Amino acid sequence: MTNLIPIFIYLIASLLITRWWSARQSKQAGELYQDKAKRFFIGGRFLNGPLLALTLVATYTSASSFIGGPGAAYKIGLGWVWLALIQVPVAMLTLGVLGPKLLAQRKAEHATLIEWLDARYQNSWLTKLALVSLVVGFIAMISVQFIGGARLFSGVSGISYELGLGLFVITVLAYTLTGGFRAVVITDAFQGILMIIGVLVIFITLLSQGGLTALMTEVSTQSPTLLSPQGNSGQLGWPMMLSFWMLICFGTLGLPHTVVRLLAVKDTNALKRGMIWGTIISFIMTLIPHLSGVLGRALYPDLTVPDEIMPTLITGLFDPFWAGVLLAAPIAAVMSSVDSMLLQSAVSLVRDGVVRCYPSLTANSQVSLTRVAMVLVTLIASYFALDPPDMIVWLNLAAFGALQAVFLWPVLAGLYWQQIAGNAALAAMVSGLVSYLMLLWFKPAMFGIHPIVPALFISALGMLVVHRIVRTPVSQKV
Amino acid sequence: MHLISKKTLLLTLGYFALWCAGPLLLATQGNWWGLPIWFWFSCLFAPLLLIFFLILMIKSTYHD
Question: In chain A, which among 379-438 make CB contacts under 8 A with chain B?
Answer without folding.
Answer: 416
